[in-house]
Design a protein that fits this description.
Length: 138
């Protein structure tokens, strides 16, 4: 596709959405996408800064309302960042991490209790051994 490499985990159809303007070359499109992503990132940062500034500016409002303003700003900024290439790859990483987390086999209550007791016994035994070596060295 025009000699452009795509990062792993990011489908190419998310980067190349149909547009009404003609595309001259793949390099120009990638540069435009990078600039757009930077503008979105800076805009998201500004939204968070404005939300935090609004928190302090509206000091006469209830605390709940001020926190709501900050949360709304953070949610809007997060939504904006998720539309960028790096945001989409971060979201793909989070989804992949969740899949891996679901594969973890947790110990049963009895297994956890047995391992905990073994650790406690070993700590006591090693503590006594070290206490004995310390007592013999003086």
């Amino acid at each position: 596709r025009l000699g452009v490499r795509f990062p792993p985990g990011l489908p190419s159809d998310l980067l190349f959405r149909p547009s009404t303007r003609p595309i001259s070359s793949g390099k120009t499109l990638v540069k435009e996408l990078i600039v757009i992503d930077k503008v979105k990132g800076i805009s998201a940062l500004l939204i968070v800064v404005v939300a935090v500034a609004a928190y302090y500016y509206f000091a006469d409002l209830l605390q709940v309302g001020r926190v709501g303003i900050v949360l709304a700003g953070v949610l809007v900024a997060t939504g904006l960042v998720l539309t960028t290439e790096s945001g989409q790859s971060a979201w793909a990483f989070v989804k992949g991490s969740n899949v891996e987390r679901q594969k973890v086999v947790w110990p049963t209550r009895q297994e956890a209790l047995q391992v905990t007791l073994m650790v406690i016994v070993m700590v006591i035994i090693l503590g006594l051994v070290m206490w004995g070596f310390d007592a013999l060295s003086f």
